[in-house]
């Protein structure tokens, strides 16, 4: 597959140059996941990924800082955008409400991004998770998630006008939110996408706001989805 073949045919509001950049990014992620699934993370190099995507290693590094980043989609611009949303969007709403809206949006974007790779989005996510059995990649992913959690903590503190060094609430909320995201993406992948990930995340955050009652709606909707699959 060449990059010219991978250019999305027509995404509204995006220039041809931006569409080509997006196509390159998607192609790099797609071939990286394919190669790692075939050979294992330790046996795939940046040069292998670049060659399979028909670009130079230099071009690869224009899009991703490392082969670890290409697998879990680490994008500094996306993290920055998340921070801005947490600080400025939904003025007058609680920090938890703003956080729920932002991370539900991130869940939706994840599903769309995986879908744009072609094929089954859940299958791509499973490949990513399978690749993370490699200790080095697991450590890189953990470092990335820790960075996201710090960004979320600082953004919530700014929104609340407080100092996370003296007020534990922003950090507690950020830590709980990361737990929600890990749990919902893991369930979504293991269930084969039985429930849309953004709906699942929304219900999970609502359950968190309610104190995680045992009869929360997120449990009911997932049980219903599994019963449908069994028939």
Brief sketch in words of this structure:
This protein has 231 residues and is mostly helical.
Structural notes for this entry:
This protein is 73% helix and 0% strand. Helix 7 packs parallel to helix 10. The protein is globular, with a radius of gyration of 19 Å. With 231 residues, the chain is mainly alpha-helical. It has two domains: 1-73, Tetracycline Repressor, domain 2 (Orthogonal Bundle); 75-231, Tetracycline Repressor, domain 2, CATH 1.10.357.
Strand count, sense and barrel status of the largest sheet are: none
Percentage of residues assigned to helices: over 70%
Q: Could you please say which CATH topology of the largest domain applies here?
A: Tetracycline Repressor, domain 2
C-alpha termini separation: 39 Å
Question: What secondary-structure arrangement, pairings included, does this model have?
Answer:
Elements: H1 3-6, H2 16-39, H3 46-52, H4 57-63, H5 67-72, H6 76-88, H7 95-115, H8 121-131, H9 135-160, H10 169-190, H11 197-209, H12 217-230
Helix pairs in contact: 2-3, 2-8, 6-9, 7-8, 7-10, 7-11, 9-10, 10-11, 11-12
Jot down its keywords.
mainly alpha, Tetracycline Repressor, domain 2, 2 domains, 12 helices, 73% helix, globular
């Amino acid at each position: 597959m060449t990059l010219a073949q991978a250019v999305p045919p027509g995404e509204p509001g995006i220039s041809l140059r931006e569409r080509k950049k997006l196509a390159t990014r998607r192609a790099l992620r797609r071939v990286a996941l394919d190669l790692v699934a075939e050979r294992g993370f330790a046996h795939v190099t940046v040069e292998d990924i670049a060659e399979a995507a028909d670009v130079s290693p230099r071009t690869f590094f224009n899009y991703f800082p490392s082969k670890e980043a290409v697998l879990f989609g680490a994008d500094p611009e996306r993290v920055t955008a998340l921070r801005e949303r947490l600080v400025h969007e939904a003025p007058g709403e609680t920090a938890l409400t703003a956080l729920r809206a932002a991370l539900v949006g991130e869940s939706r974007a994840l599903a769309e991004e995986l879908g744009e790779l072609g094929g089954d989005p859940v299958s791509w996510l499973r490949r990513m998770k399978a690749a993370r059995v490699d200790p080095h990649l697991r450590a890189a992913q953990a470092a990335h998630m820790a960075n996201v959690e710090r960004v979320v903590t600082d953004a919530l503190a700014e929104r609340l006008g407080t100092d996370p060094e003296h007020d534990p609430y922003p950090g507690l909320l950020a830590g709980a939110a990361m737990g929600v995201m890990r749990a919902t993406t893991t369930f979504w992948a293991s269930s084969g996408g039985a429930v849309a990930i953004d709906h699942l995340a929304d219900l999970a955050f609502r359950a968190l706001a309610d104190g995680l009652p045992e009869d929360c709606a997120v449990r009911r909707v997932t049980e219903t989805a599994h019963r449908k699959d069994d028939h």
